[in-house]
Amino acid sequence: MTMKTLILPLCLVALLCYGCVDPIPAPPHTLAEFTELQRTHPQEYANSTVMRHNIQRVLDPDLPTADREASLDLIASLVGPGGQLPAEVSAALDQDDCPPTLRKRILGQGVAVATVRNGSNSATTVTNGGAADPLPLNKLAQAPAGPRRRATLRWLIENPKPEALADLCKLWASEAPNGSDEQLFRQAVGGLGAGKWQDVLLDSLNAKKFAARGSALSVLSARGAEIDLLNRITAMTAQTVSIQTMQTFVEKFGYIPANGGQLLASVIVHAENKGVLDKPALLAKQWSAKYNYKFNIRDYHLLNKLSVDATRNKIERDELVKQIVQKLAVRRHVDRSAGPFSRQAAQMTMPDLWNIVLIDEMLHRKRVSLALRILADRLRAGLNSPRSGLVFFEGGKAAAKLYPQGIDSTQGDRDHIPERELQRAGFSAMCHLHTRFEKVYNGDRAPTSKRELSAARQANFYGLVLTSIDSGTFSAFYYNPDGAVVSLGLFAFGK
């Protein structure tokens, strides 16, 4: 399905006539979202999928407590009165920093925390006879750290089950390198094929029907220096599009995707840009030699456009920094908690610097500021309008396009957590755009939120958030997946 877009400079007309789209919704995180999903997309996610997704959220210490508790409430609703919470939920109680309110809600639920017994409903039940019983293999992918997971890994070392490789990869990918079970994972995976664990995972990447390619890549990339991953990928005989794509990006950019999301982006970019990779690759190499730049697939769109822009691509890093410092130093800012840009410049990459320069130019164009005024007026009048979109580098300048999202029209000035369709479209964009214009005086929402920074890190994108400060002014904040936030200052809505 092609997303319907709204080009900001033309949105005086387009905003009044854009069509409705029905993008694939994200898995629900709350009872309200689940109820809405049942009404609008009743066949989209099985209850078991919703359950697994929210178990992971309950166990995620990086999520706000309220979000973890909302997921717990949804899980309790799914099991129903008299049911049992999944055994995995109890792992939250073992976390040293488990919030007291979450602990109380788990222990105080009207359902009991389940225990997984031998003979439970699973395709394969493993037994150990020791102090900790191994888990059924159908519970492996979500197994929390602890004695039972270790018992399961030891059992798999003694009893190799090739059908467990995909779930093993998913579980291992969720762990930091050199975690407490690292050696057990290596032995368990290594026993499922020829050679060592890295050989098994590389073979899985090159297998056409393997179901956990992204997780296998995450494990390999996190340990890439140890196993000389770049040269291993280069030496393979490609049997899949994934390996063909990685070999191309290794050759041209010295780059290997870090996870499944980056691999998907690389495959899409490669398919859309065959035969035109040499110029952006050359520019990336020049940046690498001069500024120690390391290519990332999220930078391809910018590099591709800059590489053929002779008026811009020879501008040096120092000149870009100087331009930005001079502009931002004299501008009003609603929030400078991150400090002036001059203190952050050293941590900014060349793509960061170019993104800021191009976005700043875009926001100063009269047609763009007028389009933003029209969008703000529509939102404040309660008219259905998209709030999120993407920024592209076209014709030597940045251009913004709005993409309706399923929850844009229902949750007001929310955080920017892009849906799957917008994420995919963003693979070929410069950065994401989100507006908070529904309220006139919205300054307390101006800085980029922690949830937005987390989303940028997980989905690997740059972001721009525009927030209404008063009837005639909005703020602009740029952010990147590394957690950097730059205030671009205050701008006037067009008239």
Determine the number of helices (DSSP H or I, runs of at least 4 residues).
22
Chain-averaged pLDDT: 86
Which blocks of ≥5 consecutive residues have pLDDT under 50? Answer: 7-22, 114-131
How far is the N terminus from the C terminus? 36 Å
Q: How many β-strands, per DSSP?
A: 9
Detailed description of the structure:
It contains 22 helices and nine strands. By secondary structure, it is of the alpha+beta class. It is globular and about 70 Å long.
Give the key terms.
44% helix, two-stranded parallel ribbon, alpha+beta, 9 strands, 495 residues, seven-stranded mixed sheet
SSE order and pairing:
Elements: E1 6-7, H1 11-14, H2 31-40, H3 47-58, H4 65-79, E2 84-85, H5 100-108, E3 112-113, H6 147-158, H7 165-173, H8 182-190, H9 197-205, H10 213-222, H11 224-227, H12 229-235, H13 241-253, H14 260-272, H15 278-291, H16 300-306, H17 317-329, H18 341-344, H19 350-363, H20 366-380, E4 388-394, E5 397-402, H21 420-425, E6 431-436, H22 450-459, E7 463-470, E8 473-479, E9 485-492
Parallel strand pairs: 2-3, 6-7
Antiparallel strand pairs: 1-5, 4-5, 4-6, 7-8, 8-9
Helix pairs in contact: 3-4, 4-5, 6-8, 7-8, 7-10, 8-9, 9-10, 10-14, 13-14, 15-16, 17-19
